[in-house]
Amino acid sequence: MMVVDGGRRDGGGCSSCHRSFDRELVAGWDNATIAGAVLYIKKEFKLESEPTIEGLIVAMSLIGATIITTFSGAVSDCVGRRPMLIVSSVLYFVSGIVMLWSPNVYVLLLARLIDGFGIGLAVTLIPVYISETAPADIRGLLNTLPQFSGSGGMFLSYCMVFGMSLMPKPDWRIMLGVLSIPSLLYFALTVFYLPESPRWLVSKGRMLEAKRVLQRIRGREDVSGEMALLVEGLGVGGDTSIEEYIIGPANELIDDQGETVDKDQVTLYGPEEGLSWVARPTKDRAPWECPHHRLSPW
Fold first, then answer.
1. Residue 222: left if φ>0, alpha if ψ -120 to 50, beta else—which one?
2. Is residue 232 part of a domain?
3. Record's PANTHER family (predicted)?
C-alpha cells in the first residue's frame, strides 16, 4: 500500500496498481492459454488439414487488438478513460463466455476477435491511465508492473493447461472460458473502484470533478498545486512556438555590435569552473512552427 502525507492512503497509486495488475494478468493468461488449448481445438474440429484456420484461431485476438487500437485513443479522448476501460472488461467477459460455449470453429473465431478488442483497449488505455492518475514519484514503477503481472498470468495459465492436460479428457472450452472469472474482477474494480482520469476531466473543463477525484486518490484536501499543474500543462500548447538557439562559448557569443546579448539568452554551465556556454535564440523564426525548442551548436 502506497502512503503519502503522514500515512494517508494514496488511492491513485493503489487503484492504478490494482487495475494494471489485473488487466495484464488477464492478457497474459489469455495469450498463454490458447497455446495449449489449440492442440485440443485442432483435434475436435479436425483442423489437421486446415493450417490457415488453426493459425487464425491463435492470431484472431491480435487482429482484433490491432483494429481497436487504431481509434481507441481518439474515442477515449471524447468519452473518457473510465468508460472505455469498462467496455474493455465487458469484452473480456463476453469473449470468455462465448469461448466456453463455442459450438463450432466460426463462433470460436468470433470470440477470439472480441477478446482481441478487449486486449487492444486495455493495452492502449492502461499506460495512459497510469500516467494521468499515479503520483509522479511512483509513476515509473507502476508502468513496469504490467510486465510483471502479464508474466505471472502466463505462468498461472501454463500451470492450469498442464494440469488439465493430465486429465483423461482435457476440455479446451474450460481452458479458454476460465478467462471470464478474472474478467469479472477486472469489471468490478473498474466500475466500483476506478475514478475517471483527473487530467481528462480538466481537459473537458470539469474542474470541480477533477478536484474531487484528486482529493480522493491523493488522500488529502489540498490539491490546488496539482490542479494548477494540470491546467497549465493542458493550456500551454496553443501559446508556444519553436525557437532555434545558437550555442557558443560565453566569452565569444556576442551580437552584431559586439555586446553580449542578455535578453532571452540561456547560460549553460560546464563541469569545470569557468567553463560555460551561452544559448541565444536566432533572429529568424518560422511563424507556423509548432511548440518545441531546438539547440544548434555554434
1. beta
2. no
3. PROTON MYO-INOSITOL COTRANSPORTER (PTHR48020), SUGAR TRANSPORTER (PTHR48020:SF35)
Q: How confident is the model at residue 14 (pLDDT cuts 50, 70, 90)?
A: low
- 298 contacts 247 by C-beta, under 8 angstroms: yes
Query: For 75-88, what is each residue's pLDDT tens digit?
Result: 999 999 999 999 99
Same domain? 16 vs 115: yes
The reply to whether 248 falls in a domain is yes
CATH number of 86's domain: 1.20.1250.20
Q: How far is CA 101 from CA 4, 64, 78, 113, 124, in A?
A: 47, 20, 35, 15, 28
The answer to whether position 206 is within a domain reads no
Q: 125 and 258: one domain? A: no
Identify the three-state secondary structure at position 252: coil
User: Please, what is the average pLDDT of the chain?
Assistant: 79
Q: At residue 5, does pLDDT exceed 70? A: no
**CA Rg, the chain, in Å?**
26
The domain tally of the chain equals: 2
| Residues 6+ positions from 117 with CB-CB distance below 8 Å | 64, 65, 67, 68, 88, 91
Instruction: Indicate the pTM of the whole model.
Output: 0.72
Residue spans of alpha helices (H) in the chain: 11-44, 51-79, 81-101, 105-133, 139-165, 172-177, 180-192, 198-203, 207-218, 224-235
| Residue 231 pLDDT greater than 90, yes or no | no
Residue 122: the pLDDT is: 87
The answer to whether the CB of 22 falls within 8 A of the CB of 16 is no
- Please give the Cα distance from 158 to 155 (Å, whole number): 5
- Please provide the size of the chain in residues: 298
- List the domain range (segments joined by +) for residue 260: 240-297
